[in-house]
Amino acid sequence: MTQSLHEPKLALHVEDLTVSYHSKPVLWDIDFDVPPGVMAGIVGPNGAGKSTLIKSVLGLVPTVAGHVTLHGRPYKAQRRRVGYVPQRSSVDWDFPTTALDVVTMGLYGRLGWLRRPGRREREEAMAALELVGMQDYAGRQISQLSGGQQQRVFLARALVQQADVYFLDEPMAGVDATTERAIVDILRRLRDEGKTVIVVHHDLQTVRSYFDWLLILNVRVIAQGPVREVYTADNLKRAYGGQIALLDEAAFVERNDAARAAEAPR
Amino acid sequence: MTLAEMLQDYTIQNVVAGAALLGLVSGVLGSFAVLRRQSLLGDTMSHAALPGVCLGFIIAGTRDIGSILAGALLTGALAALVMLMLTRLSRLKTDAGLGITLSTFFAMGVVLLTHIQGMNNASQGGLDAFLFGQAAATLRSDLWIMGGITLIALTLVAALWKEFKLVSFDAEFAASLGLPVVWLETLLTVMVALAVVVGLQMVGVVLMAAMVIAPAVAARQWSHRLEGMVLLAALIGVAGGIFGALLSALSRGLATGPLIILSVSAVVLVSLTLAPERGFAWEAVRRWHARRRLRYQQVLTTLYRLAMHHDDPGFPSEQGMLDTYHGLRTRGVLRQLARRGLAEWRPGPPDEPGPPRRWVLTSAGIAEAERVLDRLGQEET
């Protein structure tokens, strides 16, 4: 079947997207493009619709208007090329299962109906656990893992999906410094392999050092583009309003590229 | 009646087989219901089955098990649907939605039941047995229906095992993979309704929810894998069913359904108390050990600090001083230290007044105290 591609040069293309909840707009008229091979951050105040944006791209929440394409095709046709890391708090970690089993779940889409994961799947899952440094915890009950370890397991589950575009919802929330560093390293490696990584992020301090593409969101798009151009005091003020006063402006706005060096391992 | 005689009794055979089937299907499906936090949905559906039972009777005109169970399934599923609509479309929270649906449907059931009893129809005899169950009324033909439902449910669970697992653990991720999450969740809910229907005759609408919840809760205590939990829940359900049925056959006049529920609940109680890592008793023992270790380390480091303070590794400490410092008698702990060779009960200097014997750290004790302090220091930073 031949189908003309819509904006094939973009890894993610979102046009006129509107999402509402109880007739209140959560996302309003979003136009958002991400070129392939970048690490993109999505920031904005609480309730700005950051998670909702990711979920509506993945078809997890109904949209009122607008369309989304990934590498030129709608999501339904591109599922196998997408990896997803939901918020860690969205699941019950007391569920009776092991770390390896959770990672194997990333392969269920490829396996299809009625087929059970076999040795090959277990090996792939094990390799992904090794990538995130969790191979020694493969057989561990997931409730016994620390927050950072749980997040790594979730990341490994997305890695086995062998995707071209990765969506991560607050992967750095509530994890220790070591895990944050490990996660960022893995995401950078993915980007360097030419994959596209899109991250909902909450910590403005690290935006400059982690990302090369940025969307500032507050129900509407406030600004988007390369981090250098978009990450300005003015844009942040427009997105965060009064809340910006709570943050130490000088600490993050005036940081230039020298900050990158300071981010090196202490 | 001996056990062997009992097992040859036709009625008892039926009851035991029915109870075992019920335990099997509700153990397996209950595991998913409990993990998806839908235990109370089972309760709502079982209460909501009552109007269906009555409608089935009114339509069939007799106590025909097929139409009664079909009616029960219908209103049970309808109640689940109403509850979902209520929470989706209004701002009602889940617990309120469940409560309202449960009581409304149950009230309708009771009204219909009293209406039927008022009709003075001779064949209505024992319809109210569906309230608390009447296991002795189980017929061989009922067993075939129960067996059929159980077989269908188990086959579906086996075939869709990994999908059900993923939907129960992380429905959002399942949806992102393209799984039909709504259908899978509906299927799981409908199957719980089926399990409820299976149990109506045996344990009745009021107690049926316990049969769905209890085996799963007990099994969760002992297993860290979904496979293990489901198998164990099935086993507990079957064992509880058989045990309860036999118990009621032994002691004439005691109701079977409630005895089955009590048997399963006993397993829950034991599991909540004794299961390794998750049980109360386990937790209490662990705390006791931790407290003992803490006190032991504290006394050790106090001896060490006293010695350091006096610039004398062999400083003899008086026990009264240690007791005062810790506000409790330290004799037991000190003896424990002595047993491990970390401290010694030595005669004090001969020329000094005061108690003749005092506590002195050995070199192993000093090393151990330094290790403990080191570790504490690390944890602080």
TrEMBL record, chain A:
Molecular function terms, GO-annotated: ATP binding; ATP hydrolysis activity
Family: Belongs to the ABC transporter superfamily.
Keywords noted in UniProt: ATP-binding, Nucleotide-binding, Transport
Protein name: Manganese/zinc/iron transport system ATP-binding protein
Domain of life: Bacteria
Domain ABC transporter: 12-244
Pfam families, per database record: ABC_tran
TrEMBL record, chain B:
Keywords: Cell membrane, Ion transport, Iron, Iron transport, Membrane, Transmembrane, Transmembrane helix, Transport
Record's keyword annotation contains Repeat: no
Transmembrane segments: 12-35, 40-59, 65-86, 98-116, 143-161, 173-194, 200-218, 230-250, 256-275
Any GO BP annotation: iron ion transport
Chief location bin: membrane
Cell location: Cell membrane
Membrane topology label: Multi-pass membrane protein
CDD domains: TM_ABC_iron-siderophores_like (cd06550)
Assigned GO CC terms: ATP-binding cassette (ABC) transporter complex
InterPro entries, sorted: ABC_BtuC-like (IPR037294), ABC_TroCD (IPR001626)
Gene3D superfamilies: ABC transporter involved in vitamin B12 uptake, BtuC
Stated family: Belongs to the ABC-3 integral membrane protein family.
Classification via PANTHER family: ABC-TRANSPORTER METAL-BINDING PROTEIN, METAL TRANSPORT SYSTEM MEMBRANE PROTEIN CT_069-RELATED
Name the UniProt record assigns to this protein: Manganese/zinc/iron transport system permease protein
Annotated organism of origin: Halomonas cerina
